[in-house]
Amino acid sequence: MDALFFHPKLVHIPMALAVLMPLVAGGLALAWWRSWLPRRVWWIAVGFQAVLVVSGIAALQSGRSEEERVERVVLESLIEAHEAQAQAFVVVGAAVLAAMAFAALLPSNRAATRIAALSTLGTLAVGLLGYRTGQAGGELVYRHGAAQVYANTASSAPLRRAHAGPDHEDDEDD
Questions:
Q1: Is pTM beyond 0.90 here?
Q2: In angstroms, what CA-CA distances link 144 with 6, 96, 133, 135, 156?
Q3: Burial grade of 46 (CB within 10 A; 0-12, 13-18, 19 or more)
Q4: Between 79 and 44, the higher pLDDT residue
């Protein structure tokens, strides 16, 4: 797989799950608590949270592999701030995953539903951290020009001409 642009492609998985997990976990916790669904449905929330954490780790690693290239156009301190936010996102996501799994494994249904409810609140914290991480990454790209390091690839040249439109003159002599 081409490593070029891998990080921007990968980050959408944990970011989407960070938005969805409060709804998924909240709905499943409510269904479990009200006995609308059996207790084992909580494993769905555990599974989705595990995907969030694993894809967050993969996104973090892919960002690290592109860091030196991006440092050519963006201050290292801005990249490090984005990375620190991503690390917090993954760590808190993993803590919520552990709490979710603990709730699923507890023998006491009453204690388990309480921990499930608390871990559902934890998904809100993960969502907030995901938002901050994504915002910092977006600023690297759109405000600080991180995408410039890829601007000279062969595939980007036709896109620049295609979007030039009739009001823009072509630099080439005809």
A1: no
A2: 19, 33, 15, 12, 19
A3: buried
A4: 44
